Amino acid sequence: MKDIENCEKLSGNPVVATSGGNCNGGNLYTGIVTVSYNVNPALYGETVRLRLTINNNPRISTTSTGTLSFIAIYNLTGTSEIALLGQQFTWTCQMVIPSQESHAVVRFYRNETNVGLVGIVSYCRGLSIDPKYNYSCTSQTEFNLIIPSENMTEEENNTIWRCSYVFSGSPSFSSIQKRLIIGNKPEVHMKTISPYRIKEGNTALMSCGIVTATPNTDIIWSWVKTDGPNNILHNGPTYRISNIQRGQSGTYKCTATNIIGTSLPATIHVDVHYGPSLVTFSPDINTINRLENQTVGPVICSAVCNPTCTYHWAGVSTVNSARLDLGVLKRTKRGNYTCTATNVISSSSRSLSVTINYPPNIEVFQASGNQIYEESSQFSIMCKVDSYPLSNNYIENTETGKVVSSSGPTKSLVFNEISAKCYQTSNYTCNSRNFYGSSSSRKLGIYIYCRPRPLDGKSFFIIGIQKGKGLNISTQFVGYPLPTISWKFKTNSSDMLTTLSGEFQTFSKPLNVSAIQTGLTKMILRPEEFGYYIVTASTPGNISQNYTVTYHVIPERKPDAPNNITLDCAVSNGRAIIKWIPGFDGGADQTFVVSYRTNTGLHKNTTRINLRSYVTITGLNDRTLYFFKVIASNRNGEDSSKEVHCMTKESTAFPESTAQDIADIVGERIQILRKKETEEPNRMLEIKVRVHYEELKAISRDQERSYDTIQSPDGHCDENM
């Protein structure tokens, strides 16, 4: 409803009219006021109210207001609120026909331009109809203007339509204006920039927006991954993916749907970035183990990563690519190589161990200083070896074959000498061996300045020569520089040295750089040639020194008496051990006999002893004083030591009835000497049983070897037992 204040909707002039009497006498004044107005056609279909104010003039005492209203019934409707492109649309005009009219006619306006007159005059007729449109009549009060489907184009969108009733040849009573809205399905766009790059594990946010849609209400959104199952992932303009993973990379599309239809999709490519989690090798190896000079193929490093990784090999050599070409293997290529795959997210590495095997090569073999040293000084020899695997190394004296230093698998070996010895003057080599071969160094000379000396350390010898026989003596000297040798002779120790006659033959033969052997021979030695033969070794140079060895050559004679006699009578019951140092043998082979007795004076002798200087005597009486002497003899006579004595050990008695029992226990362990079995069998058995009784009681000897107690060390029995 519109108030009268909307004056622009009405046309006319205010009118003041007075009719009737006055108000004197208290009577109500009655009058009639008539006002005419024309109503704007746009108001048809709405309720209009008029207000009337009555004023008392000249004296204003009261104002009365009334409301007048009238209703114009009229309606223009379309097929639907929203028209569709390419689909027929009909405008329907419904009017109330004034009673005085006999014809029912309406006029249709498009953007206030007449597009046709439709009415019923005897029948449904159209006049001046725009050729784009059709018409029809539903009844005498309802008329249609039809927009065919082929003419329902964008030109019709947002056009203003109305219809008006025509009577007495002029239009009157117009409908309200209606806007023709052509609906369209949504048009969408992707607000998030594609490609959408995001780090794995983060939250992805993708947003779609409406460009246009009619109507733009009740929109239904759909998100689908184009390279996956056609499942709706989300309904809404913004799609959120928490903790996004690499498998969720791909193309996504969003669509919007209204009552008209579904939009074309807007797409976005999601690119999930992730670092290299696992580096792989092709071929799939962790080690290369080959012989030197063998050829191997390339190793390709790769990793799954987005964006693409760059690759870098580091280690023995550096390569800025995924490909490691080792080619022909050389020892310099041995070691560890690491491939690192890197992108903007992270990096990852994997190592390759390259083992190149080769035989040893001795790189350094040298001595400290200038290889010449004073005796008792310090020196060292170092050997460095290049090999793989590590080799066993040793330093050897090439003159003697003696290994002076050795080691297990190692790169180097050092021989340290804290006090240089004369005999260490020699040539040395370093030798190395591993599974793949061996190597020896050049010879390295070590020279120790030292005075000359005999190799055996002896400087005086007595030699007995049988008359009419020859002389043959020799010795070895060590010294550096290599000693020179001279032989001299003198008859007596106080005589002057003389030069040997030409009948003597001497020789000197170097054994190595610091050792020499020398000798003297003569086929037959005359009596006047017995005496002292003196050999002198002299080292040349600034540190010249001499050393002499004397050979006292005498006619062959009887041996000297043994000396340094020692006794042990407490070793066990009935036993004594005697030891001695032999004297000069007189120039002939000598033998020894031990003679012993009790204080009764009866002597007993052992068998002859050739090579030893000790004997064990058994069968002695217990707790008895014995006297011993050692006699040395050769073909020229004999000589004896001084007599020495000791008390034998006291026996431990045992019941006679147990003798046989002990013998049974000992059994075959008792060895009865065959020589004495027939002469004194009872005494022999008693001795043996007693010895074994003591040993079994003390549990101090190996019973399997108990029989030894009645044997002399050479296995012969004491003939005087």
Question: Would you give an account of this structure?
Answer:
By secondary structure, this protein is mainly beta. The chain folds into seven domains: 7-71; 74-180, Sandwich (Immunoglobulin-like), CATH 2.60.40; 183-273, Immunoglobulin-like (Sandwich); 279-356, Immunoglobulin-like (Sandwich); 368-449, Immunoglobulins (Immunoglobulin-like, Sandwich), CATH 2.60.40; 455-555, Immunoglobulin-like, CATH 2.60.40; 656-710, no CATH class. Helices cover 4% and strands 49% of the residues. The chain contains three helices and 55 strands. The strands form 13 sheets. Strands 32, 34, 35, 37, 38, 39, 41, 44 and 45 form a nine-stranded mixed β-sheet that branches. Helix 1 crosses helix 3 (681-698). The longest helix is centred in the last third of the chain and has 18 residues, at 681-698.
Task: Show the helix and strand layout.
Layout: E1 10-11, E2 38-39, E3 47-55, E4 63-71, E5 74-78, E6 83-84, E7 89-95, E8 104-110, E9 113-121, E10 123-127, E11 134-139, E12 142-147, E13 159-167, E14 170-174, E15 178-180, E16 182-190, E17 196-199, E18 204-214, E19 220-225, E20 238-241, E21 250-257, E22 266-273, E23 279-282, E24 287-291, E25 295-296, E26 299-303, E27 310-315, E28 323-324, E29 327-328, E30 335-342, E31 347-367, E32 372-374, E33 379-388, E34 391-397, E35 403-410, E36 412-417, E37 426-434, E38 437-440, E39 444-454, E40 460-465, E41 471-480, E42 484-490, E43 498-499, E44 505-512, E45 515-522, E46 531-538, E47 546-555, E48 563-568, E49 575-581, E50 591-598, E51 603-605, E52 614-618, E53 625-634, E54 637-640, E55 644-647, H1 659-666, H2 674-677, H3 681-698
Parallel strand pairs: 6-16, 17-22, 24-31, 32-39, 40-47
Antiparallel strand pairs: 1-2, 3-4, 5-7, 7-12, 8-9, 8-13, 9-10, 11-12, 13-14, 13-15, 16-18, 18-20, 19-21, 21-22, 23-26, 25-29, 26-28, 27-30, 30-31, 31-33, 33-36, 34-35, 34-37, 37-38, 37-39, 39-41, 41-45, 42-43, 42-46, 44-45, 46-47, 48-49, 49-52, 50-51, 50-53, 53-54, 53-55
